[in-house]
Amino acid sequence: MNTTRPHDLLWLNDRAALEEASEEWVISQWRPALPVVVRRDVSHDKERIPVGVRGMRRDQRAAGWVNAVNIKRVVSPEALASHTVLVGSPFVSMPPVQGAIQLALREWPWVWGITGSVGYALATEVPVLHADSDLDLLIRSPEPITRETLVEWQQVIGQLLCRADTQIETPQGAFALSEWLREARVLLKTSSGPQLVSDPWAFKGEV
């Protein structure tokens, strides 16, 4: 059964387990010791999971697929937000990790995690982040969250030592918190493509 979710990092049991990612840099750089990340896409086979491959450069991104039987390890964004993980990282002195530590020291009424280059670096110790890297954050929100509590979170991350952006993950898809707080409607990223919606928790399209 496919229990992975978008932004989860997956380690595969073999190089051949990564399918349909045939870019030259993937062939030369990617190896099973490095994770791929679950992305959104439509698959009629629940055991076939859409993934993305990350290279050392910002322009090196590739889309592929993996079969669930070939996954040997899963690390979620939430696991990377652990205070223990953050303070034990070789990148602990960098502003994005310091910002994550500040968030981890507070109690929040939701589950949150770290994605993007900071999450990848925390999980792999590969130096893909630098002092100016953004801190990409994820809040799991199966139920609607009040605007007031999200405004508080936004105010806190606005005071961190780095730029931070938050995606809100609903059962229907994900949207940018800053956009939702600013606009009457928001772009909801779903498996079947982006949808402009007024209530991201109420959207009932294919995800």
Kindly summarize this structure in a few lines.
The protein is of the alpha+beta class and 207 residues long. The chain is built from seven helices and eleven strands.
Low-confidence stretches: none
Compute the number of strand runs: 11
CA radius of gyration: 17 Å
Q: Strand share of the residues?
A: 25-35%
Enumerate how many helices there are, as a single number. Answer: 7
- Overall pLDDT, averaged? 92
Proportion of helical residues: 10-25%
Structural class: alpha+beta
| Biggest sheet, spatial arrangement of strands | 4-3-2-1-5
Shape: globular
For the termini, the CA-CA separation is 17 Å
Largest sheet: 5 strands, antiparallel
Order of helices and strands: EHEEEEHHHEHEHEEHEE
Q: How would you characterize this protein structure?
A:
The protein has a 5-stranded antiparallel sheet with strand order 4-3-2-1-5. The chain has a 4-stranded mixed sheet with strand order 6-7-8-9. A two-stranded antiparallel ribbon has the order 10-11. It starts with 8 loop residues before the first strand and ends in a 10-residue tail after the last strand. It is built from 7 helices and 11 strands. A hairpin with a 2-residue loop joins strand 10 and strand 11 (193-197). It is globular, with a radius of gyration of 17 Å. It is α+β, with helices and mostly antiparallel strands. It has helices at residues 24-29, 77-80, 83-87, 95-104, 116-124, 147-157, 177-182; strands at residues 9-12, 36-38, 48-54, 61-67, 71-75, 111-115, 135-140, 164-170, 173-176, 186-190, 193-197.
